[in-house]
Design a protein that fits this description.
The protein is an alpha+beta fold. The protein contains ten helices and 17 strands. The protein starts with a helix and ends in a 7-residue tail after the last strand. It comes from Neosynechococcus sphagnicola sy1.
């Protein structure tokens, strides 16, 4: 009798443990209760000396097949970036819901809306900027804050849009800088954002300076920014691996914070990061440093943590670019210029992420060794290279 009771209790405990484990596994594997938010169509519809008006659309899509997500709140905030004081400059924001099945209220109140599974809704955002002289404004950083309410609870979310407000005219009188086998020309652009495309930027800013045989290089961080590959730390949730391993990296590393390292974990997975760390630590003891970055993948070297680039992206973690070879090949095809995407620093280190087939790496490295684009706020993400050697690279 007692033996049977003991077996029954054991089975009950085991069943409870397995049930609890299954419930926990189901919880961890369930999809994230988040909306897919895109903000691609933004235009500077009024661009007058004393008045700017920015109009953009935000699309919210529920990717879940079973669950509904409610959006009870949406608000916007704008931060203006300027080369002069903002005194006397004001901005106002209007959010106009554009739900497919419910008209917007006349008082602009955002009423709680249900985004059904697989469905989308939109909102139009209007930003008006007024001032006696707006010529010093460089960009508007728009933060779209919204609340989701779902089986996961009430969660605050934020999406970011950067809209340039200053557009330099290509200056053909800019000074070229000599190097042993080429002349180089850093080219200033507007503040690049996810609203830009590398080909169009090259066409607008580089072609007025270029001639046959020139090479254009693009910085890897500006390319990543144009691809929208930047994340605010509030959007990143560091896990076990990132929180524990980040302390072992040098303070100057972009992986030395939990959010910076988690950005890499989100790309390649925790197991690869942990394995690369363990093997890298052993290799370092044996006199072979740098093994972690080789094993963890290219993104480990390319991530820029907070403060790693110019405002307002200094507030974000910027990932490395994607599809780099496709981009340079497209630039070559559509503009006729040879092209490369590079990572250059003030320590004379030049890393070529991708280059068209007609570029000799050694020539490119020598031309860029002095880092003509700079690492501060020069806002010169493009460098035009003109070979001066009688035998240019082929």
């Amino acid at each position: 009798m007692l033996e049977s009771l003991g077996i029954g209790i054991g089975v009950a405990i085991l069943g409870g443990a397995l049930g609890g484990l299954a419930l926990e596994l189901q919880y961890r594997l369930r999809p994230a209760m988040q909306l897919d938010v895109t903000a691609k169509e933004w235009n500077l519809e009024v661009y007058e000396p004393q008045r700017y008006q920015i109009v953009g659309d935000v699309t919210l899509r529920n990717p879940l097949s079973r669950f509904e997500i409610m959006v009870p709140e949406m608000q916007c905030q704008v931060t203006l970036l300027s080369s002069a004081s903002l005194a006397g400059i004001t901005s106002t924001i209007q959010i106009i819901p554009q739900h497919p099945d419910a008209p917007a209220r006349a008082d602009n109140y955002w009423f709680a809306y249900i985004v059904k599974s697989g469905k989308t809704t939109q909102a139009e955002i209007r930003v008006e900027i007024l001032g006696a002289d707006l010529s010093h404004l460089q960009a508007a950083w728009i933060q779209i804050r919204y609340v989701t309410y779902s089986p996961a609870g009430r969660e605050s979310q934020v999406s970011h849009v950067v809209v340039p407000l200053q557009f330099p005219t290509p200056d053909t009188s800019q000074r070229w800088r000599p190097t042993p086998k080429a002349d180089v020309l850093p080219i200033r652009t507007h503040l690049l954002t996810h609203l830009d495309h590398p080909v169009e930027v090259v066409r607008h800013y580089v072609l007025p300076h270029a001639r046959k045989g020139d090479i254009v290089t693009l910085g890897e961080t500006p390319v990543a920014i144009m691809q929208g590959r930047w994340r605010h730390p509030t959007q990143i949730r560091p896990g076990w691996v990132a929180r524990r391993l980040c302390y072992f990296f040098l303070p100057t590393s972009s992986l030395a914070t939990a959010c910076g390292l988690q950005a890499l974990v989100d790309i390649v997975g925790p197991l690869r990061v942990l394995s690369a760390f363990v093997i890298g630590a052993v290799a370092k003891v044996l006199g072979q440093p740098g093994m972690f970055y080789r094993l963890a993948g290219e993104q480990a070297r390319l991530i820029d943590d907070v403060t790693g680039t110019l405002p307002p992206y200094d507030q974000f973690i910027v990932l490395g670019p994607q599809h780099s070879q496709q981009i340079v090949d497209q630039i070559r095809q559509e503009t006729g210029l040879s092209a490369a995407i590079v990572d250059v620093n003030d320590l004379k280190a030049v890393k070529i992420l991708a280059a068209t087939a007609d570029i000799t790496p050694a020539f490119l490295i020598q031309a860029l060794r002095t880092n003509p684009a700079g690492n501060a706020d020069e806002q010169t993400p493009l460098v035009l290279i003109r070979p001066t050697d009688p035998h240019p690279p082929t």
